[in-house]
Amino acid sequence: MINLRSIFNQYQKTMPMENTIKIKNEYNSLDSLQEFLKSNSSFEASKEYDIWEHRIDANGQMEQCIVLKKSNKHAVKAYFATNDTVKINHIIPNKIMQAYFGKSVKARRNILEVITGVITQAVLAGSQKKAFNELEKVVKKAAV
Predict the structure, then answer these.
(1) What is the pTM of this model?
(2) Sign of the torsion angle spanned by Cα atoms 30, 70, 8, 111
(3) Which of 50, 53, 96, 135 is the most buried (most CB within 10 A)?
(4) What is the mean pLDDT of residues 42-51?
(5) pLDDT tens digits, one per residue of 12-39
């Protein structure tokens, strides 16, 4: 039988995969940071709307972020939390895989969704953490 408590404890130790990094002044816009990431890494860097958190700007438009993609299962998104700090989070860039393996943002989930979500995250946590660390190092190259 599956021990859900140990799986959940393992999941909590490895999550969340996020960090806040202070960026040099020359990279204080999404465009300049994207160009830096494109030229200083072998990963794919693109500017996209933030469909993962649905952040909205002052004009009511969906905010953009930079997606630094390693594969269809592993990427980080970076967005400016303040003028000179970037927040990075692990995401699943493929929208279909995000639907199956991503974090649920539903207000209410049934017990089966909670259990399968925890099991899925526990199984994927090791590879996601490794990919997050690799991608975080690339973003840290633009740090102060």
Answers:
(1) 0.71
(2) positive
(3) 135
(4) 89
(5) 554 567 889 998 989 888 999 999 999 9
Residue holding tokens 């806040």? 20
Residues spanned by the domain of 39? 4-140
**H or E stretch including 120?**
helix 111-140
Give the model confidence (pLDDT) of 77-89 as tens digits: 999 988 889 999 8
CA distance 62 to 11: 30
Structurally, the chain folds into a number of domains equal to: 1
Residue 33 per-residue DSSP state: H
Q: How many CB atoms lie within 10 A of CB 141?
A: 12
* Distance in angstroms (rounded) separating the CA atoms of residues 108 and 110: 7
